[in-house]
Design a protein that fits this description.
Involved in the biosynthesis of the chorismate, which leads to the biosynthesis of aromatic amino acids. Catalyzes the reversible NADPH linked reduction of 3-dehydroshikimate (DHSA) to yield shikimate (SA). The protein is of the alpha/beta class. Helix content is 34%, strand content 19%. Bound molecules: 2'-monophosphoadenosine-5'-diphosphate.
Length: 280
């Protein structure tokens, strides 16, 4: 149980780390809930990851987040890996246990699904096939979250098909990988479409996908949050589908991590969202 009387320390380890919005999010919550604490960016080079993680208990940290390139490497360093993180193959949250042991967790899939419910409270994972475009780390977390939410069919498409096949093999039913060329027609009947690629990000080409076959009842989610409205989300909005921007996933994955470190489950408020949007 977190100790509320001490100053709570947490942070995010990455390389580079200057881009991370996580300090803003967590420090906003420390202030909002009147907790004494700080969340700091930790620039940790890959060769020093183990040393840095092992220093957390000695420094009095409650835990940390991990971002690129440490999410996968941490799997072999930590003392205990929660099943969810093992299944995704990446750790995004580390908790220092009372005895100093380090537990690895992954809240990215949870955050993604929570962002869908925030945008569309009545959405149901089993209401129609979920289409996921991409097969990197983000796609793995999203697939995991959708399975936990009760998805009955997940259709995976990736430019490099072998990576999609690997995810389908790792997760098993209800996930299946399909040829990249078939992605446009595969949107027929879908309840959810997710862009889990970097396409649509500032400086990148838009995702090459026709929404003609997509039902207007579908949710269209993007992991990209800069810009907040990607070309894909703009197209979804124009056709009457429900767009879900990538900021929700970032904000919602942070909630259970903050809870683990402080004992307080924080809220994603319009003020918090506005604070981060102003910084994009
Ligand atoms: P992350 O772990 O953050 O998801 P990643 O492993 O680099 O990042 O994955 C990026 C995703 O964007 C991949 O699915 C990638 O497709 P490939 O596996 O074929 O590389 C996808 N992606 C990147 N550029 C793309 C492009 N021009 N067209 C289609 N997909 C692209």
């Amino acid at each position: 149980m977190p100790n509320h009387h001490s100053f709570i320390l947490a942070g995010v380890m990455g390389w580079p780390i200057g881009h991370s919005r996580s300090p803003k999010i967590h420090n906003c919550w420390f202030a909002q809930y009147g907790l004494k604490g700080a969340y700091v960016p930790l620039k940790v080079e890959p060769a020093k990851l183990e040393t840095a993680l092992r220093a957390l208990p000695a420094l009095g940290f409650s835990g940390c987040n991990l971002t690129i390139p440490h999410k996968e490497a941490a799997l072999t360093v930590l003392d205990r890996i929660e099943e969810n993180a093992a299944r995704i193959g990446a750790v995004n949250c580390v908790v220092v246990e009372p005895d100093g042991a380090l537990t690895g967790k992954n809240y990215d899939g949870y955050g993604f699904v929570a962002s869908l419910y925030e945008a569309a409270p009545k959405w149901q994972a089993a209401s129609g096939p979920c289409i996921v475009i991409g097969a990197g780390g983000a796609a793995r977390a999203i697939v995991s979250g959708l399975i936990d939410a009760g998805a009955k069919e997940i259709r995976l498409f990736n430019r490099t098909r072998a990576r999609a096949e690997k995810i389908a093999a790792d997760f098993g039913a209800p996930v299946a990988a399909y040829p990249w060329e078939e992605r446009h027609e595969a949107l027929a009947g879908a309840g959810l479409l997710v862009n889990a690629t970097s396409q649509g990000m500032i400086g990148q080409e838009p995702l090459d996908l026709s929404l003609d076959a997509l039902p207007t009842t579908a949710l269209v989610a993007d992991i990209v949050y800069a810009p907040l409205e990607t070309p894909l989300l703009a197209a979804a909005r124009r056709m009457g589908a429900t767009p879900v921007d990538g900021l929700g996933m970032l904000l919602h994955q942070a909630r259970p991590a903050f809870r683990d470190w402080t004992g307080t489950m924080p809220d994603v408020t319009p003020a918090l969202r506005a604070l981060i949007v102003a910084d994009l």
